[in-house]
Amino acid sequence: MSEVSNTGGVRILLDGVTKRYDAQSSRPAVDNITMEIPAGDIVMLVGPSGCGKTTTMKMINRLIEPTSGRIFIGDDDVTQRDPDQLRRHIGYVIQGAGLFPHLTVGDNIAIVPRLLKWDKKRTATRVDELLDLVSLEPSQYRDRYPRELSGGQQQRVGVARALAADPPVLLMDEPFGAVDPITRLRLQDELLRLQEELRKTIVFVTHDFDEAVKLGDKIAILQAGSKIEQYDSPERILAEPANDFVRSFVGAGAALKQLTLTRVRDVDLHEAAVARVGGNTGEAIRAAQSLDREHVIVLDDQDRPQRWLSLAELDDPRALDGVERDEELECVNLASTLNDALDQMLTSSHGVVVVTGRRNTYQGVVRVETIMDAMEGLRRSGEKTGSAS
Q1: What is the biggest distance separating any 2 CA atoms in the chain, rounded to whole angstroms?
Q2: For the chain, how are helix, strand and coil distributed in percent, rounded to 5?
Q3: Which of 108, 154, 225, 383 is the most buried (most CB within 10 A)?
Q4: What confidence tens digit (pLDDT) does each residue in 5-18 have?
């Protein structure tokens, strides 16, 4: 499989942008917002319902036309562009994926490349690259229809479709709001993993402040009319809320939210006993015994974790033949938060959670003791900060 091409992100600048739906209305939906979104960052727009965050985002690709002001993507003033042409070069992901039900997964992903008149071979290659990128096996999923997929799988296809023409900018409008909490967590992890690889400029609307803290390089907290109350890193907003509105929006438990700022890659990982699909069960048993473990994690030929097998299961000499992935396998990514790892651990029977890296390759495991130590360190740090202030 060839590597996915990588057009990095570009800067977005909103310059005095206003949107009025009614010329007679005294209150614009978006009132003179000026905001710079750095190239390659994820910027989260959060705020109460009706504050204008979705309107602000939709003006970037001109699904909503600004009344006044200018919008730059890179050095290009997109208010002067043909809106249909513009939208073919900006990825857009909505809640519920928005897939066309009568088209296969492959045809859904291929929509924009075909509009751009890519040839069949290039389009087919791109479809398979992107399915691989969002962890859906191309041969298994390309010819399925959306109704045959789970909600989480549909949302992954939605992200793949948005990335089809390799746009520098991705707009995401509450994309994970319609899925269950576990799937939401996995999709967030998937987005962070993709972003490490692709470095797009992502504008992401959410009503969930915890999601904003987890995903955002920067967070813009908006009031009515898209008035920016604070635009800063998650760390600064948690530590130094700009005013009472931000403080109330952050809510209780800001100290606990610090656990959301610590990534799995920031702590020491441990090694589990490892076996391979098609491997020798005797060797797998000896590997587990040498580490005093009761289970091994089975990896495929691309180092992707498939499932745990117990020593008892490995007594069958064919136990490693044709091992298929356990869809319930508790995994987190290097970019996941310790809070996520703890959530996954609470549903695990192994006391550890498997950690994956780029292209979902196995990196090690994180243990509950590691998370407890990190929480204790954050608590001590918080006490020092409190006594110093």
Answers
A1: 79
A2: 40, 20, 35
A3: 108
A4: 567 889 999 999 99
